[in-house]
Write a structure and sequence with these properties.
- The protein has a two-stranded antiparallel sheet with strand order 1-2.
- Helix 1 runs antiparallel to helix 2 and helix 6 crosses helix 9.
- By secondary structure, it is mainly alpha-helical.
- It is built from nine helices and two strands, in the order H-H-H-E-E-H-H-H-H-H-H.
- It has one domain: hpI Integrase, Chain A, CATH 1.10.443.10.
């Protein structure tokens, strides 16, 4: 299999934690922004999927999340962990304007894609991440981490909603690069017979 020309950049563990710690929950939009970051980093949602998420797409008891046909035209079911579901429940309860969309502006209008992108970049700069962080990088981070943990590329494909497995295979290359680096730099010391 040919290696892709350019591998997507991802966040490391420290950067991921810093980004999720950045939003101020006291700010009117801080809780909303944290929820959107969590959905991209912990569930692999695309920016458009986050922005079009409706209240009815979340099963508030089980944490099941219906992600409606976005790119690739495949609806998919995901599950949120209890901590992320609780964060979303708290946002649902304190939304300034009740609409069908889960995430809106303070006036109840849809959040624009450019505003979501600007928020992600602003939060990354605020915590000192030197990378050009954008919503799709968060999705790449999620996919790479999921593959690292499960070693199941089909599971990653299904979770991301990719129609073609070849689209998902890039995440195996990311992990392969890490393994190659680790093996090249690994040394236990001089072993002599």
């Amino acid at each position: 299999m040919a290696r892709p020309k350019k591998l997507p950049e991802t966040l490391n563990t420290a950067e991921r934690h810093a980004l999720l710690a950045a939003p101020r929950l006291r700010a009117p939009t801080g809780h909303r922004d944290l929820c959107m970051l969590v959905l991209m980093l912990n569930a692999g949602l695309r920016a458009s999927e986050v922005l079009h998420l409706r209240v009815r797409d979340v099963d508030w008891l089980s944490g099941q999340l219906l992600v409606r046909a976005g790119k690739g035209k495949q609806d998919r079911m995901l599950w949120l962990n209890e901590a992320d579901l609780e964060l979303l429940r708290a946002w649902k309860a304190r939304r300034p304007v009740v609409t069908a969309l889960l995430f809106t502006t303070l006036h109840g209008t849809p959040v624009k894609d450019r505003d979501l992108r600007a928020m992600v970049k602003r939060r990354a700069r605020k915590v000192g991440i030197p990378k050009d962080v954008h919503p799709h990088m968060l999705r790449h981070t999620f996919a790479t981490d999921l593959y690292r943990v499960t070693k199941d590329i089909r599971l990653v494909q299904k979770t991301l909603g990719h129609a073609d497995l070849s689209t998902t295979m890039i995440y195996t290359h990311l992990v392969d690069e890490e393994m190659a680096h680790a093996m090249r730099t690994f040394r236990q010391g001089d072993v002599r017979a």
